[in-house]
Specification:
The chain is an alpha+beta fold and 459 residues long. The protein has 16 helices and 10 strands. It has 4 domains: 78 residues; 188 residues, 2-Layer Sandwich (Nucleotidyltransferase, domain 5), CATH 3.30.420; 51 residues, no CATH class; 99 residues, no CATH class. Strands 3-2-1-4-5 form a 5-stranded mixed sheet. A 3-stranded antiparallel sheet has the order 6-7-8.
């Protein structure tokens, strides 16, 4: 491949005091990474354990390969024209191994770092700025760590790396494709190669730039596009004419269902005028359906546990905003906003306690075991009347205890019975707990609360 000559060309050694040229030091470091992948400070041990000549270093210069020497060689490599160097290396590899460079796949990922990295100033000699290690969207789900964005493009023929570079940790993937495509056009020597990338490529600027330059591309349409929403809405009433393009046995399961792929070409196309082809895979449908059911079951269990926490005697989840936040976190974790709708309906349950005549305090608590309490209240129904002031329009006066007790008992257990009308609650209590004194007093007070049907208790 002529890698040593290329390193000599782009990373020359201008200081005559260097016993080991920069190109030889970088070549030795590259070979050690392929063999052992040891740290830089252990480079001498790695070379000493193998034949020294295989690393391109004479045995007399082995002591000069310190970590400082390798660090200075890496500094010169950083200051060199690395893009041109990489281009020539890729062209040499393509020529040596007959790589066609007809279909190139691009993807990016994040590399996390531990540490502060406060001082990230440009190089003092060349003025070049290294990619900033900073916070960004972590694809490894570690937002607490700083990162770099690593971009790699490989050839479909054997997965040979064609182009790679790093960018700042907070760089958006969508703005990296134009620069990457220009580099690939220079490497391939033409623009008609097929550029394959993920949904970050599907933007008007990227697609229009590649199309105007005579390139071809294949990408995935994100769900945020209007075309996706219109097609899913159209599917509710129409059936597309799917065309079978692939039918093979299942790769993962020997006796599983077959992997069938069908396509449908959209007659309208995208808003930019490009062709849209919808793909349907039977195995992908089954996998997504199973994952969706699993997520729904997990979310329902989490919502049930949240409900038990809310209704607990010592619940710390109080207030509507905090409950809504708990529900939102559950739906977001399981990705069920499109499939599961949760609505919070306030339904307070009250109990009433009489401190003295006609003064009731409301407690916002859940009544438990109300039937024994109702039976106790009815059994303790007053046996005799008490003297009270006659009723009038201006001065109602004190009600009789036998008149007040039926209403009070029925009113206390309205919510437990499932009604807001204490008259119906009184009827229910009359049938549940037959008591002649309770029935007679309830019938006597019907003129104040309206007509009430009273069940006569059995003797």
């Amino acid at each position: 491949m002529g890698l040593a000559e290329l390193l000599e060309k782009y990373v020359p050694t201008t200081d005559p005091r260097c016993r080991v040229p920069h190109a030889k030091a970088l070549g030795m470091l590259l070979r050690s990474i392929v063999v052992e992948r040891e740290p830089i400070y252990r480079a001498q041990e790695t070379v000493h354990g193998f034949a020294t000549g295989l690393f391109g270093i004479a045995s007399g210069n082995l002591k000069s390969l310190s970590d400082d020497r390798l660090g200075r060689a890496l500094d010169r490599l950083f200051e060199a024209d690395r893009a041109a160097l990489l281009t020539e290396v890729v062209l040499a590899v393509a020529k040596r191994f007959a790589v066609q460079l007809q279909q190139l796949h691009n993807d990016s990922t994040s590399i996390s770092f531990c540490g502060q990295y406060r001082d990230q100033s440009p190089s003092s000699r060349s003025g070049k700025r290294a990619p900033a290690i900073t916070y960004g969207y972590s694809k490894q789900h570690r937002p607490d760590l700083k990162q770099l964005l690593f971009i790699l493009t490989t050839d479909a023929d054997g997965g040979v790396p064609v182009q790679f570079r790093t960018a700042d940790g907070n760089t958006n993937d969508s703005i990296t494709h134009i620069e990457t495509w220009n580099t690939l056009r220079t490497v391939a020597g033409r623009a008609d190669f097929l550029y394959v990338a993920d949904s970050k490529l599907c933007s008007q600027d990227n697609l229009s730039f590649i199309d105007r330059a005579g390139g071809r591309f294949v990408t995935v349409m994100p769900r945020s596009r209007r075309e996706d929403k219109l097609f899913h809405k159209w599917l509710q009433t129409e059936t597309p004419s799917w065309e079978l393009v692939w039918d093979r046995p299942s790769v993962r399961h020997r006796y599983g269902p077959r992997d069938v792929w069908s396509v449908y070409r959209d007659p309208v196309g995208s808003a930019e005028g490009f062709v849209i082809i919808w793909v349907w895979s039977t195995l992908l449908t089954l996998r997504q359906q199973a994952r969706r059911h699993r997520n729904i079951a997990t979310a329902i269990e989490a919502l049930t546990a949240l409900r038990r926490r809310i209704l607990g005697p010592r619940s710390r989840v109080r207030g509507g905003p905090r409950i809504d936040l708990g529900v939102e976190l559950i739906l977001e974790k399981n990705r069920l906003r499109r499939y599961l709708k949760v609505k919070r309906i306030p339904r307070p349950e009250h109990t009433f306690k009489q401190t003295h005549s006609h003064n009731h305090s409301v407690r916002s608590t859940v009544m438990m075991c109300w039937i024994p309490r109702a039976a106790t209240g009815i059994s303790r129904f007053p046996r005799r009347r008490h003297t009270y002031v006659p009723r009038s329009l201006t001065a109602p006066g004190w009600h009789d205890a036998r008149d007040v007790a039926p209403r009070h008992i029925a009113f206390c257990y309205c919510d437990s019975i499932g009604t807001r009308e204490f008259t119906y609650a009184a009827q229910y209590l009359t049938c549940m707990f037959p008591c002649q004194r309770f029935t007679d007093s309830l019938a006597a007070t019907c003129d104040d609360s309206g007509p009430v049907w009273v069940a006569t208790p059995s003797p």
